[in-house]
Specification:
53% of the residues lie in helices and 13% in strands. By secondary structure, the chain is of the alpha+beta class. The protein has a domain at 121-264: endopeptidase fold (from Nostoc punctiforme) (Alpha-Beta Complex), CATH 3.90.1720.10.
Amino acid sequence: MSHTAHIRSHRKPRRSASTIAMRAGVASGVLGTLAVATAAGSANAAEPVTQTLELPVLTGDLAAQVAQSAQATQQAAANYQLQAERDAAATAAAKEAKKDLADAKAEAKKKAEAARKAAAERATRAAERTTLTSTSASSSDSTSSSTATGSAAAVIAFVKAQIGDAYVSGGTGPNSWDCSGLMQTAFKQVGVDLPRVSQDQSTFGTQVSLDNLLPGDILYWGSAGSAYHVAVYVGDGMFVGAQNPSTGVAEKPMSYDPPTGAVRVL
């Protein structure tokens, strides 16, 4: 028997070929997995990730709603514009109305003041006429027997010949007259050149009292220098003048319209 027959071998037992192959396959799989993971990581690190957002597709109903909303917005804008225009028009109208009211008040005040002055003047003339009525009556008594002679008679004859002619403002004959036009033409018959208007005729010649009238004296109504009517005294408490459009040239008693004063030019 060999002297080594009972010595155990210290060598590790050999693995079988199948075991070795299996371990080799596992290792290869692990290495392959690591390689794939590494490649994927490198690829992800090299290329950015792109995300795609999908926008909603407008359907027919949604498009109609959008159009309706746009139309509503336009209508609202139009309404706001129209309201703004109306507000502006209302403001302008209010300002215009306020101005018209102020103008109307001013005009009414002006007319009222003019009416007041006219009424005061009428009252003054009425008082003067009332005062002069008795004076005219006494004057007519003192002159009732007076008889016109010479130039006065010619003036009186002329004005009486025009009785019945029409009264026309600015008229100087031969068939229509105003008061001062008749006086100017009548006195021109005897060579007296009277001014054209009653205001100037009332200061032409010598002022005389209504108590001492003579035929041929010029009567005036209003104050001297601003008279609004003239006529000629023809005696017996009567006068002839172009009165107004309704009477024309007429002969009237002194009491019909008592004059304010008189001037003597003959």
